[in-house]
Design a protein that fits this description.
Number of helices of chain B: 3
Strand order of the largest sheet of chain B: 1-2
Helix content of chain A: 25-40%
Shape of chain A: globular
CATH topology of one domain in chain A: Amidase signature (AS) enzymes
Oligomer: heterodimer
Structural class of chain B: mainly alpha
Largest interface: A-B, 68 and 52 residues
Structural class of chain A: alpha/beta
Order of helices and strands of chain A: HHEHEHEHEHEEHHEHEHHHHEHHEEH
CATH architecture of one domain in chain B: Orthogonal Bundle
Largest sheet of chain B: 2 strands, antiparallel
Radius of gyration of chain B: 22 Å
Distance between the termini of chain B: 50 Å
CATH topology of one domain in chain B: Histone, subunit A
Order of helices and strands of chain B: HHHEE
Number of strands of chain A: 11
CATH class of one domain in chain B: Mainly Alpha
Radius of gyration of chain A: 21 Å
Number of strands of chain B: 2
Strand content of chain A: 5-15%
Shape of chain B: flat
CATH architecture of one domain in chain A: Alpha-Beta Complex
Largest sheet of chain A: 8 strands, mixed
Chain lengths: 489, 99
């Protein structure tokens, strides 16, 4: 029997009194204790705090003050600062870091009454597409533990797919929510840039980073987004746009709605079975009344090189704060300040992070800035304009989330370019600041693959509506790995 | 325009210094190979015609928000310094900078 339940189901059971937050929290903690040694999806488990928060949620529910998220357990990606609990960002640099404050996302979800089970594993500083760059070891895919769950939010994805948490937060800079969601068969949602506050979310590439969710359904993503979205003065790029009722938007009909399918998404690379899974998904959308139209994103090919200039450039700038002086790891043997910086950073960062710092430093350095960084920001403008042009004609853009299902652990680790090319379908969305969602749409070689839905800026409600309607006609999002059926004793 | 990039050992040492990263000889050799591959890959953007394009300044085309010039932060020195490796009397301690 399935051990996975949605927020909507758990919330109903909490409100009608058939379960308590303490009971749920104990059950998920027991599942983590029994099953996570096979996944390594958590870096820190916060059992004691979770039970205290669960009791507080139960009191709130008993007093009739509970909301839709009150008493629901969740896991936070270890990139969100949590006071009183370690925040490592998957790095040796922050192995012992305890934030003096909570991230805005953590604060908002705690205020809604959610119960934090722990902090999930991730690629170091969110730099990776396989969760193998974590200082705390790789995460295993619950569908096949010889394979990666994707990354960088790999721990969050694996935990939700295996039923170790009903929901987890994630961050998406180039696909880090949508790609692991696709590879583990769950729903991953990244909202518009600036929709959710980045305050307290450790920065990788500040013009691309955005917080989102890994859930079992689009409905759960809507429930989470309702609490997470909104203005926060502490993030200078947080949008002041009002927050619509996402859940109410889920039930809108797709009759006459237009779905654009970029022809470049199918220009090669995707295998025949994978292509067929997507064609099947488009047919479901058509049966719901939507109209499929071919569109073009002519600069799609430029998105990978553009991203791998912009993101490393911003990373090299953001990560310059790790100097061994104010927080984080410090090298013990240095007799002068410059050596202290250099040795701290040599030992504190892993190889992929250092590779990106080096790349970013190079493209920003004197004599190269115009050829690389400035050219990339121009290419980025072209990529964003391609999307805007399409959204004059269509309501949503649909295509694959990833080029392949989950690859084997170690398969691409020594070849950074192969790893980077894996992001081809997801990074344009970040470069253009758009909302994007991945929902399961079937299997290739017995492994789940995702359908990606992309909306215009602040089109979260539209994306969630399409995903929910698709999930109401299909059951791919209900398929689960055998691990999710195991009962913890 | 296609500028094929191959980094030299000296380039790598220079970048590592700018990034304040100590690199061993083995690492230098690896960076020469892998960074050259990455730089060469991203350099293909040089072929894209962007002569009529303004570079993107902000993904939402939003200006910088301003606020009143008033104190909003409280003193949290003690809480913030708890994460430092070495502090003394409210100061961060580093190796001697001036002889």
């Amino acid at each position: 029997m399935s051990q996975r339940q949605t927020i909507a189901e758990l919330g109903a059971a909490l409100r009608d009194g058939s379960t308590s937050s303490r009971e749920l929290t104990e059950r998920y903690l027991a599942r983590i204790a029994a099953l996570d040694e096979r996944l390594n999806s958590f870096i820190t488990v916060t059992g004691e705090q979770a039970l205290a928060a669960a009791d507080a949620a139960d009191a709130r529910l008993a007093a009739g003050n509970g909301g839709p998220l009150t008493g629901i357990p969740l896991a936070h990606k270890d990139i969100f600062c949590t006071s009183g609990v370690l925040t490592t960002c998957g790095s040796r640099m922050l192995e012992n870091f305890e934030s003096p404050y909570d991230a805005a996302v953590v604060e908002r979800l705690a205020a809604a009454g959610m119960v934090m089970l722990g902090k999930t594993n991730m690629d170091e500083f969110a730099m990776g597409s396989s969760n193998e760059t974590s200082f705390f070891g790789p995460v295993m895919n619950p569908w096949d533990t010889d394979r990666t769950p994707g990354g960088s939010s790999g721990g969050s994805a694996a935990a939700v797919a295996a039923g170790l948490a009903p929901v987890a937060t994630g961050t998406d800079t180039g696909g880090s929510i949508r790609q692991p969601a696709a590879l583990t068969g769950i729903t991953g949602f990244k909202p518009t840039y600036g929709r959710v506050s980045r305050y307290g979310m450790i920065a990788f590439a500040s013009s691309l980073d955005q917080a989102g969710t890994l859930t079992l359904t689009a409905e759960d993503a809507a429930l989470m987004m309702q609490a997470m979205a909104g203005f926060d003065a502490r993030d200078s790029t947080c949008a002041q746009a009002s927050v619509p009722d996402y859940r109410a938007a889920l039930s809108a009909s797709l009759e006459g709605k237009r779905i654009g399918v970029p022809k470049e998404f199918f220009d090669g690379g995707l295998d025949a079975v994978h292509t067929q899974r997507l064609r099947d998904a488009f047919a479901v959308m058509e049966s719901l009344g939507a109209v499929i139209e071919e569109i073009s994103l002519p600069n799609l090919g430029a998105s990978v090189p553009t991203y791998y200039i912009v993101a490393p450039a911003e990373c090299s700038s953001n990560l310059s704060r790790f100097d061994g002086v104010r927080f984080g790891y410090r090298h013990e043997h240095a007799t002068d300040l410059e050596t202290l910086y250099k040795r701290t950073r040599k030992d504190g960062f892993g190889s992929e992070v250092k590779r990106r710092i080096m790349t970013g430093t190079y493209v920003l350095s004197a004599g190269y800035y115009d050829a690389y960084y400035l050219q990339a920001q121009k290419a980025r403008q072209l990529i964003a304009e391609d999307f805007s042009r399409c959204f004059e004609r269509v309501d949503i853009i649909a295509g694959p989330t990833t080029p392949t299902p989950a690859f084997r652990l170690g398969e691409k680790l020594d070849d950074p370019l192969q790893m980077y090319l894996n992001d081809i379908f997801t990074i344009g969305v970040n470069l253009a600041g758009l909302p994007g969602l991945s929902t399961p749409c079937g299997f290739v070689d017995e492994l789940p693959v995702g359908l990606q839905l992309i909306g215009p800026q602040f089109g979260e409600a539209t994306v969630l509506n399409f995903a929910h309607q698709y999930q109401s006609r299909t059951d791919w999002h209900l398929r689960e790995p055998p691990l999710a059926e195991e009962v913890a004793d | 325009m296609r500028f094929l990039m191959a980094l030299t050992k000296e380039d790598v040492e220079h970048i590592a210094h700018l990034a304040r990263l100590e690199v061993s000889d083995d690492e230098i050799a690896e960076y020469v190979a892998k960074l050259s591959g990455i730089i060469d890959f991203v350099a293909q953007l040089g072929e894209l015609d962007t002569s009529a394009v303004e570079p993107m300044a902000h993904p939402l085309d939003m200006g910088q928000r301003l606020r009143e010039d008033s104190v909003t932060e409280q003193d949290q020195r003690q809480a913030l310094q708890r994460n430092a490796a070495d502090v003394d009397d409210g100061y961060y301690i580093v190796p001697r900078v001036i002889d």
